[in-house]
Write a structure and sequence with these properties.
Blueprint: H1 2-13, H2 17-64, H3 89-93, E1 98-99, H4 116-129, E2 131-132, H5 146-155, E3 156-157, E4 161-162, E5 166-167, H6 173-176, H7 184-197, H8 214-220, E6 224-225
Parallel strand pairs: 1-3, 5-6
Antiparallel strand pairs: 2-4
Amino acid sequence: MKARFFYWLKIYLGFSSKESRGFVLLIPVLLFLVLSTSVLKEIRNANAEDFHIQYLATLDSLQASGVVLVGSPNPVFNPQDTIITKSNTKQLDNLNRIPFAEADSVTLQIVPGIGQSTASRIVKFRESLGGLHSKSQLTEVYGLKPETIEAIWEYFDFSPGIFRKIRINQLEVDELGKHPYFSYAEAKVLVAYRKQHGDYQSSEDFLKIRIFKQEWIDKISPYLDFQ
């Protein structure tokens, strides 16, 4: 019987004698894996069924004791439950409101929803711009949710303040391109136009470069110094 089985493996599957012996040893392992998977599945199903029966029995005992069971109209998990929309009033009473411009990556973490990495991104964004002139600019910070931005103003006072302006008539391409609102290509065009036509007198001069949109010019205007 064994010889005939090996012969069959050699003729139909091309197994050598060594491969045939290895295959025979492998068969029990494969059977064990198949059977164990089925057994584990049955055990899990049995446990789940037992738990469900116990759960129903608990509900029945509660109802028998006079407890009125009410189903929730909401889903079991509501993502909004993880969002803190209102800050603790008592906590706010213990804090001094300081200007947002003075907040560092440590003090910003007092705001619900802001951790160390988010606080660092906010500070880096503010400092690289040279200050903020509008609250809405925080929407440009990656990963900062609208409800978190709202919460920031419960802890910090905002007043427009740009502490570093762009000397548009003096900076060269590399320096100008370091500002978050200027790409290298935009800086290259602005510097080339300035060298060809002379110093800019106001942001309206940028409209003469027809590739620039009014929205972008309005965005960068608060940061420009034409002296």
